[in-house]
Write a structure and sequence with these properties.
The protein is an alpha/beta fold. Helices cover 22% and strands 32% of the residues. The strands form three sheets. The chain has a six-stranded mixed sheet with strand order 5-4-1-6-10-7. β8 and β9 form a beta hairpin. The radius of gyration is 20 Å and the shape is globular. The relative contact order is 0.17.
Length: 200
């Protein structure tokens, strides 16, 4: 019964000519648009209620998926009049059934187990959950640490590990009060607002 909110309103400007007549979520990887693969992946985990936020070339997306019946799911749309960022469209999300919902960017192909994600979120009693990806970055030089004009340490081509935002989230509906109404607002800012209000 949990909703899946898919953010599909971006311009995809970094893909230049590929997205001049086709929104990025509708670009094909294999035989299907990315967005179709995303929906089918969620469906394989039992999710069937989708809300798609659209803006750029929205008619391409809506004419393809319609109400979702052809794909065995239910689809409604949030129609952004202006670009609202990766979180701003949530201010127009008014279909909450009181359950945590998943938010995901529509340019991602992932093998994450969405059922386990939802279970993790609920088990830990989080107000919002951000999926992270661990990346490693190797510095191609020797790193020298100097104190008082003396070399105290040399690290040859060290590898640093970071966690980065993976663009997949779970949000409790009561946290939507921290999303400004109808304004451009991104998910990192949303989580910063939650942290500042001790909603962790």
């Amino acid at each position: 019964e949990n909703h899946v909110v898919l953010m599909a309103g971006g311009l995809g400007s970094r893909l230049a000519s590929l997205t001049s007549n086709c929104p990025k979520p509708m670009l094909k990887v294999g035989n299907h648009p990315i967005l179709q693969t995303i929906i089918e992946t969620f469906k394989s985990f039992g999710f069937y209620k989708f809300v798609i936020s659209v803006n750029y070339l929205s008619e391409v997306i809506e004419s393809y998926f319609k109400d979702g019946k052809e794909f065995g799911v239910e689809i409604t749309y949030i129609r952004e009049k202006t670009k609202l960022g990766t979180a701003g469209a949530l201010s127009l999300y008014n279909e909450s059934n009181g359950l945590p919902f998943i938010v995901m960017n529509c340019d991602l192909l992932t093998r994450i187990n969405f059922s386990e994600l939802l279970e993790f979120h609920s088990k830990n009693k989080h107000m919002a959950t951000m999926c992270l990806r661990q990346i490693e970055n190797q510095v191609p030089y020797g790193i020298v640490t100097v104190e008082d004009h003396k070399i105290v340490k040399i690290e040859e081509k060290p590898v640093y590990t970071y966690f980065v935002n993976a663009g997949i989230y779970v949000v409790n509906p009561e946290m939507l009060k921290y999303v400004p109404q109808d304004k451009n607002f991104d998910m990192p800012s949303f989580f910063e607002s939650l942290i500042s209000h001790n909603e962790t």
